[in-house]
From TrEMBL, chain A:
The keyword Signal does not apply. It is a multi-pass membrane protein. This is ABC-2 type transporter transmembrane domain-containing protein. Keywords: Cell membrane, Membrane, Transmembrane, Transmembrane helix. It comes from Pontibacillus yanchengensis Y32. GO terms for molecular function: ABC-type transporter activity. One of its GO terms (cellular component) is plasma membrane. Residues 20-391 form the ABC-2 type transporter transmembrane domain. The lineage of its organism: Bacteria, Bacillati, Bacillota, Bacilli, Bacillales. Gene3D superfamilies: Periplasmic binding protein-like II (3.40.190.10).
From TrEMBL, chain B:
Keywords: ATP-binding, Nucleotide-binding, Transport. The keyword rRNA processing does not apply. Belongs to the ABC transporter superfamily. Pfam families: ABC_tran (PF00005), DrrA1-3_C (PF13732). PANTHER family: ABC TRANSPORTER ATP-BINDING PROTEIN (PTHR42711), ABC TRANSPORTER ATP-BINDING PROTEIN NATA (PTHR42711:SF5). The keyword Transport applies. One of its GO terms (molecular function) is ATP hydrolysis activity. Residues 3-230 form the ABC transporter domain. This is Sodium ABC transporter ATP-binding protein.
Amino acid sequence: MNNKFFVILAHTYLNRLKSKAFIITTVITLLLIVGLANFQNIIDTFTSEEEQVDKVAVIDETDSLFSRFQSQVKAQEDVMEVVEFDGSEEEAKTAVQEGEYKGLLTLSINENDLPEGTYYSNQMSELSVSGKLQQGLQQLKVAVATENAGIEQSTIQQIYSPVSFEKVSLAEDSKSFEELNETRGLVYIMLFLLYFGVLMYGNMIAMEVATEKSSRVMEILISSVSPVTQMFGKICGIALLGITQFSLILLVGYQSIKSNMESMSGGGFTSYFGFSNVQISTLLYAIVFFLLGYLLYATLAAMLGSIVSRIEDAQQVITPMTLLIVAAFMLAMFGLNVPESTFVTVTSFIPFFTPMLMFLRVGMLEIPFWESSLGILLLIGTIIVLAVIGARVYRGGVLLYGRSSSLKDLKKAMQLSKKE
Amino acid sequence: MTLKLTNVTKRFGSATAVDNLSLEIPEKQIFGFLGANGAGKTTTFRMILGLMDLTEGSISWNDDSINYSKSHLIGYLPEERGLYPKLTVKDQLVYLGRLRGMQKNDIISEMDAWLEKFHVPEYRDKKVEELSKGNQQKIQFISAVIHKPKLLILDEPFSGLDPVNVEQLKKAVVELKEAGTSIVFSSHRMEHVEELCEHLCILHHGTPVVHGGLKEVKRSFGKKNVVVRADFDVNYLKDVPGVVRYKPFTEGCELQIESEDVAARIFEALSGKGFVRTFDLEEPTLNDIFIEKVGASYE
């Protein structure tokens, strides 16, 4: 009996592992990860080759603004250069149209003695150049206006410097701000992994069962192996596949992030997703909730997959399950900002949402141990109940062939199945 | 290793699929299960295999119930054919064989022998979806017998096959019987049952209407057939008392008669009329019996 479990497990695992679909998606994902990690490098190689300075012609009608404007623009340390144009406005416009300059800016003084500008360009959709010019001009305007009002430059700097603001938690065991930021990163990643993992592998299981049913090989299978063995052989086989895929992704991800640490550290990635301070217990919870979440939805998927007659109906019949996962994910995304709300607390005890929401609470808050244990126990209980029902539906479902596949068939399948 | 069904009843809601069926299926023989579509054959098989609960009654095999611990002793060819379309014949049989408790090496040597026997060794590494329906059926048959079961259940094994393949499969079935396998098979092709089975049962709306050894069934049916070929018109024979059915053909006719005595009367009626080429008193065919027992209710 045990032996057959492993035969099914190995068959499911190897078959999927060797399938083109699996190899292609894995390779694409890995390439994507490597690509993302090397994003900065890729951008650099492109930009360094064609580091062309955008030249903008400036006609200064006042003769006093240009030099100050030029220093403002230079302060922005960008690959843009402003050049004073010698000649009439018409000539300058022609030069822009011919591509000699990126654009033309005319500077003047309005009736309030403040600078203003007009920008002419062929590409109005190009926002970065015009935006920077506008920004430079804005700063120039502030400087001119304050000068006119007789305010010191240092006073202005004081006004504009950011306010000093520090957060200090009074609760002793509550997580520090840095800690919270890091766990938020982990929770974020974990929620995504759980969401995609459950969705993808749940689908795979339902498809696997539906394929066997639609090809009618099922009847031979259930005459040789009990449906329970079959179902869990499949679930574990796909789980093994998931572990393989995730390990590959994590390994490649870790390696490429490590080798590109320098270029990424500037992007705020490490400050948000750095895990150096994450508690071990949070990681353990992540693994527990991931496994339980997978088991819950996998059992559900196998059960639903067993009631369809044709493979085309499989998608339709697992839609409710998909919606459940999406709902859980949405709730969790919402809860990420308000982890302490009653709403999150209550839903974290509903087994279908527990893997995501309880993990979110465990990761973000300091909740009593009994709460997380209760959540886990409820989850395990639900998995057992679902497995028992699932096995019965599976046994009946595999003999059930009808024109339509709807959830009503669940009941029929239960009636058809043999009592244990 | 007799298979015994005692008062087996199966109801689906208000519909009764099998009604109070009692059978004893002797070992090392071929037992034929006949019945119109929907008579309850497949349901009975599923109950024997333990895939479905009985509503009432009991089924025992060698004084024990059939469960998954015996699955290596049982072979099953379901009516609805199905294999993994994307797997090769070899992978397919290895997987299904291992689920019946076989070792991989044994499966491969058995598989090669069977493929050779069915003259299709070239399909070994082909995907099932590339094979014709008849060849898929052969593969499926192999999957049902590769582990040398003691009890083999074949649900409509010959449907959809050409005559050459039917012969190959029939030969294989007979060989299995001679090797000591007890075989139960269902069909609505009477000639197959007549040719292969020692015992049979005709199921009608879930109840057995005929049950027993082939010879006894025929004898107890009573009615017989007389075939007459003559150089003169034999049309008048249909008026001889005791003739139940009259079926003319070009140079004679076939008569179904109530009992053997009627044959003598027909013989008398023929004498002196002219040259009679054939006068043959035949046992009833299963077809006659089936039509009489099952077909009657359709009229």
